[in-house]
Design a protein that fits this description.
The chain folds into two domains: about 1-45; about 50-300, Cytochrome Bc1 Complex, Chain D, domain 2. It is built from ten helices and two strands; from the N terminus they run ααααββαααααα. The chain has helices at about 5-40, 75-90, 90-95, 110-115, 140-150, 165-175, 200-210, 215, 245-255, 265-275, and strands at about 130, 135-140. Strand 1 (about 130) and strand 2 form a beta hairpin. The radius of gyration is 25 Å and the shape is globular. The N and C termini lie far apart (about 85 Å). The relative contact order is 0.13.
């Protein structure tokens, strides 16, 4: 049989569709099988039920533009702002008398408090006074800053109206200069990651070995480039990051620092549990926390 050019084209198109559909079907089957094998290999089959953050942002809202450090004015107020910045970045030097471990403020409040999803300071002055369930009352910004010094830095409170306290607040206010007072501040704080399955600390150890030891050291006690995650020089048990839900979300959104976001929810959750399974400093006033019996389930005390 002799085909016309149009008929030949139709035959070729039909053959191409058959071949393409066959390849797609085989590819789908291969991907499905590989997915089952991979999930089974890492212990994730059947799929766990939990409420995580994969595929969704860790914070909502649009944070206003952050002013450049070069724009800090050459005035006495500018000097106070620069001191606040140095207190945050070089806490061990500028606030040594008030720090009880090897951390700095910017270890938790990344990029000197300028990174969303990592305890940003932008807008913080408008968020206080604020009720805090952990202490069962409304607290001021000064009290919140001192919570960081007493818990995350395992140190002691800054004196009221001290140069250090005034400078840190001046820096926060300067960062927040473009935030409307009516803003909903939805980008603030550390988001939570809540899961309904128990964490797998062994998997967390594997994640830590593969993704964290290069900066934090194989013993988790820190290096020249990253802070200790546990042990006597890390944050104490009353710090926010001592809770697995907060640590997991912080890790998910920000770690490893060179590739933030590469860890899955499960990996972030498990490595947070592994991190917080180690010993760390106690907090002398922990008995006064959660006075209204609304303690979260992942509180370490």
């Amino acid at each position: 049989m002799v085909h016309t050019r149009d008929q030949s084209h139709q035959v070729l198109r039909k053959s191409w569709h058959v071949i393409t559909n066959h390849v797609i079907q085989r590819t789908r089957t291969f991907i499905c099988c590989m997915g089952i094998l991979v999930c089974g290999a890492v212990g994730l089959w059947p799929e766990p039920t939990y409420s995580g953050t994969d595929g969704t942002p860790l914070s909502s809202g649009v944070m206003p533009a952050i002013p450049s450090l070069d724009s800090i004015p050459s005035t006495s107020e500018g000097d106070r702002i620069r001191l606040g910045y140095n207190l945050v970045v070089n806490t061990q030097t500028y606030a040594k008398a008030f720090v009880g471990n090897a951390l700095t403020c910017t270890n938790c409040h990344l990029d000197a408090g300028r990174k969303v999803g990592a305890g940003t300071y932008v807008g913080v002055p408008y968020a206080y006074p604020q009720y805090k369930a952990r202490v069962g009352k409304e607290i001021s910004l000064e009290e919140r800053i001192n919570e960081c010094f007493e818990r995350s830095l395992n140190g002691k409170a800054l004196p009221p109206h001290s140069p250090e306290m005034d400078a840190i607040q001046a820096y926060m206010s300067w960062l927040s200069q473009d935030v409307p007072p009516s803003a909903n501040l939805s980008w603030l704080g550390f988001p939570l990651m809540n899961m309904t399955r128990k964490p797998d600390r062994q998997n967390g150890q594997r994640v830590f070995t593969g993704s964290c030891t290069g900066c934090h050291g194989s013993d988790g006690h820190g290096t020249m480039v990253a802070p200790p995650l546990w042990g006597p020089q890390s944050f104490n048990i009353a710090s926010g990051l001592a809770r697995v839900s907060k640590a997991a979300a912080f890790i998910k959104g920000n770690m490893p620092l060179s590739q933030p976001g590469v860890l899955s929810d499960v990996e972030a959750y498990d490595v947070a549990a592994f991190m917080n399974s180690h010993s760390r400093p106690d907090y002398a006033l922990k008995a006064f926390d959660w006075p209204k019996e609304d303690k979260p389930v992942d509180s370490p005390y």
